[in-house]
Specification:
Length: 162
């Protein structure tokens, strides 16, 4: 097994409250926002710093995280934040990008306030969207498109309480 280590340097921070979501890009990385205007969605990679513990990093199996799922499931078959490396990915709808201030306002992101952002990429349908997708039977009733999430009762799909 490869035992190399890596260093990740946050490029920004998520700011979230009940009314707004934004990503503040650190000063040295603000020039990297050039050319993002016009993209309706971004892919945001962020660090799950609140689950960056030896216990969470050693989890490889979950006990029934999904209501209709199997009794046990491997971490790689979930979107659980507890993983060997707490790297998370969110596709977010862009509201506005202010390159000068480094503020990227988004409609929603499933990261907590203060979460470190590792990278931002434009969402590209030619590389991110897949037409023919298979899902396990226990999740086949989930919405197939991002836009269809509105109104779907995601809370009923998980066995954990918030």
């Amino acid at each position: 097994m490869n035992t190399r280590t890596f260093t990740a340097k946050p490029v920004g921070t998520v700011h979230a409250d009940n009314e707004s979501f934004l990503i503040e890009i650190a000063g040295p990385f603000r020039p990297a926002l050039q050319g993002l205007d016009g993209f309706s969605h971004l892919v945001v990679l962020w660090w799950g710093d609140r689950v960056d513990t030896p216990e969470c990093r050693s989890e490889t199996v979950c006990q029934k995280p999904y209501t209709r799922g199997p009794e046990t499931i491997g971490i790689f078959a979930t979107r659980s934040p507890a993983r060997p490396n707490p790297i998370a990915l969110s596709v977010v709808p862009v509201i506005d990008i202010d390159s000068a201030s480094g503020i990227v306002r988004v409609a929603y992101i499933d990261a907590d306030d203060g979460t470190p952002v590792l990278d931002i990429k434009p969402y590209l349908p030619a590389t991110e969207r897949v037409r023919d997708v298979n899902m396990p039977a226990w999740s086949s009733h989930w919405p197939q498109w991002y836009e269809d999430n509105q109104g779907f009762d995601w809370a009923a799909e998980f066995t954990f309480e918030e």
